[in-house]
Every structure is written in C-alpha cells, then in structure tokens.
Specification:
about 425 residues, alpha/beta, Rossmann fold, 4 domains, 6-stranded mixed β-sheet, about 40% helix, ribosome binding, GTP-binding
C-alpha cells in the first residue's frame, strides 16, 4: 500500500459502486469526486460505475469490473484509480496487485486537499490528526510506507516489538500529542465563546456545499454593514480555504452579531475529518442561525441534501436555518424547491438588505420596545443604547432623558431601575 504524494501529472480513473441507496446519486457523486481530483491537479480520464446490491469484500467491486478497470488503465495510460468510498487495507492491497497503479479512495483524496490548503496552526493540526486517524486502521496493509510519510524519527523498539507494532505505537503517540494541542486551542475558543455569551453577541454561521459562494456572501454583508475592505478569499475552487473567518457586523442602531464563514461541505465527508475538525466545526454548533448558501445557477438538490446531512451529522439540525440562493443577478428562476429561500446577488447587491433584515429578525426576534428614564449624569448608558440597540426616540425632560428602544428582555432586566 503506497501513499506517494499526489502530483499534477497523475491521470485517474474514478470508480463508484451504485447500491441504489436513497438520496445518493452515484453519477453526481463521481462528478463531485472529479472536482476534488481536479482541485489537486489530477486529470480524470474515465469514470466507471458498477450497479450492485452489495460491496465485494476482495476488491470492493466485482472481479469482472476489475478486469474492465484494468483494460481502461492500459488503454488510457492511467496512473491511479480513485474509488468513491472508503477502501479497506486488504482491498487496496488486492487492487494494487491486480491493476499495478496507485489506488486511493475519496477519504484519502479529501485529506490530501485539506493538507495542501491548511494554513493556520489549528487547521494544520486538525488535518494532521485526521490523516493519522485514517492511517491507523490501515497499518496492516502498508508495509514500510508509513516511514515515507515524514513526521520525525521513531521511538526505540521495545522488547519483541514488530515493525507494525512500532508504527502503531508511533501513530498513537502522535494522535495523543495532537489531541492535547487541539484541546488547548479549543479551551481558548471556549473561553471566548463564554465571553460572547455573557455579552450576548449572537453567531450567524455561513454553511453550504464547498464553492457555493459563502466567502462572497461574507464580503457582501461586510461591505453592506461595515463598509469593510478586508475581504475574505474568493476562489472558484473546492476547499479554497479551510480556516474559519469571523467578523463582527452591525446594522446602524442595532446590536452586533458575529458572522462566521465555515469550511465547505461535500458528500461522504470522511468521519476522521469530522472528528478531527471538532474545534473548527464547533463554530457551527454554537451558532444561533445557519445561513445555508446555495449556488443559484446550480441549486442542485444533491448539494442541498449533502449540506443538510452534514448539519445533522454534526448535531446541529435543531439550529434555525435560512436557505439563500446566490447569483440572483441572472434572474433565472430556480427549479422547484421544497422549502422557502431568498434569492440574492453578491455582484449587484440584490436583496442583501432584505437578507440583513431577515437575519436580525431571526437572531433578535425576542426584542421588544421599552421606555427608560436615564439621569443626566448617566451619559454612558445613553451611549450604550445608541451603540447596541435601536433607539426609537430620545426626549429630554427636566429631570432626565426619556429613551424608547428595542432590546431583549435579559438586557432590559439589567436596566430595570430605569424602566418605566
């Protein structure tokens, strides 16, 4: 089992197994897999699907299909075959022996992309952990290939330890070390989260299929609310960025909220990745509102369902979700969708103001109108009202300032002594 670095010159054949599972379209899944391969410069030269009622233990596909793949490899000069589902070490070993090219699966490909794109310390650690969790159960079929993965020297052998036992001990030690480092980062983020909860700053998370336009929407909302020139990277590429970006946004005379641009989703996301990215994905779990961003020119029900599935898998299905379709400048009516949506344009600003109003209506739906009488010597409270709430009126009386404002009940209770 050889895990050399993926290179631009690779020519790949994609292989999928259609088990007739509801909500899983294997043709679309292979289209997505092709996009993932293209993201690291691999050229896809063929796609092969086998319809079957079962997974074959020896090769994942049937032996007849293996012969078909072998012929395609020879004719098309393929250098690798990529399978759309996780393969066992034995399956990879058997396939490599039969096809004589590198065999990888979707999980390995996604992990390779993440490893290439990770920039921050947190993302690098999370990807490293995911890769090691992926390799751990596959050690038995790897032979000496682990040594080609890098990552420092091995510990000294214990009495009677085999190479496999040594490799496993090394991996387990690395996994423990990385988890410790990530737990420290998570603790810091949890401290910040508790501070936000204390100050009651709601979190709005942008979620969606990778490359759906989440970063573009963050830039649009930033410009509309903050006139912000510090833009988030926008690139027509799967997983262009893995690092979450958070911005504090605020509408005039309204309280602020935190907008989080999260990592994009794909179908069949490796469970190692979900487990490793616990710190990053916690931004979704802590959100008060999820904005589900969908490409308006391609509102694919498969992509929409993929995002819903990942949200459910993360345990975030109880968080309010708002469906937003981008590229509204084309004014192309999307096909029938089973839920309400808002069509917007990041290019022209179409319906961005309406989206902002909808966001505030959702995250601050507990706001009510209250009237307070503030003494003249409490100017800081007046400033607090102007900065954090929508002030409806200010009337200057002989013995104080009458303030009518919209604010949540828990904030009203903090000012109960001035409430009329």
């Amino acid at each position: 089992m050889s895990y050399r670095r993926l290179i631009v010159e690779d020519r790949a054949i994609l292989v999928g197994l259609d088990l007739s599972i509801p909500y899983i379209n294997e043709e679309k899944s292979l289209q997505e897999l092709e996009g993932l391969a293209n993201a690291v410069g691999i050229k896809v030269v063929d796609k092969i699907i086998q319809n079957s009622s079962k997974v074959y233990p020896k090769y994942y596909v049937g032996s007849g299909k293996v012969l078909e793949i072998k012929k395609a490899v020879e004719i098309l000069n393929a250098t690798m075959v990529i399978f759309d589902d996780p393969l066992s070490p034995a399956q990879i070993k058997n396939l490599e022996a039969e096809l004589d090219v590198q065999i990888i699966d979707r999980s390995f490909l996604i992990l390779s992309i993440f490893a290439e794109r990770a920039k921050t310390k947190e993302a690098v650690l999370e990807v490293d952990l995911a890769q090691k969790l992926y390799l751990l159960p596959r050690l038995s079929g790897m032979g000496s290939s682990l040594s080609r993965q890098g990552g420092g020297s091995y510990n000294a052998k214990g009495p009677g330890e085999t190479k496999l036992e040594l490799d496993r001990r090394k991996l387990l030690g690395d996994i423990s070390r990385i988890k410790t480092e990530l737990s420290k980062i998570q603790l810091e983020k949890e401290t910040s989260r508790k501070k936000r909860l204390k100050n009651r700053i709601p979190i709005v998370a942008l979620v969606g299929y990778t490359n759906a336009g989440k970063s573009s929407l963050m830039n649009s909302l930033s410009k509309a609310l903050n006139n912000d020139s510090d833009e988030v990277l926008e690139k027509d590429m799967l997983f262009a960025t893995l690092d979450t970006k958070t911005k504090k946004l605020q509408k005039d005379n309204y309280p602020p909220f935190l907008l989080v641009d999260t990592v994009g989703f794909v179908s069949k996301l490796p469970h190692e990745l979900v487990n490793s990215f616990e710190s990053t994905l916690s931004d979704i779990l802590n959100a008060d509102l999820l904005i589900h961003v969908v490409d308006g020119l391609n509102p694919d029900s498969y992509h929409i369902q993929t995002t819903k599935d990942v949200i459910t898998r993360l345990g975030a299905s109880n968080i309010p979700r708002m469906l937003v379709l981008t590229k509204g400048e084309y004014r192309i009516a999307p096909p029938f969708l089973s839920e309400d949506y808002l069509l917007i344009s990041n290019k022209t600003g179409f319906n961005i103001d309406l989206l902002i109003n909808n966001i505030y209506g959702e995250i601050y739906n507990d706001f009510r109108s209250y009237t307070f009488k503030i003494p003249f010597n409490k100017g800081e409270i007046i400033n607090h009202f102007k900065t954090n709430y929508q002030v409806l009126s200010l009337d200057y009386l002989e013995d104080g300032i009458l303030v009518k404002a919209l604010l949540p009940e828990n904030e009203k209770n903090k000012l109960i002594e001035y409430l009329l």
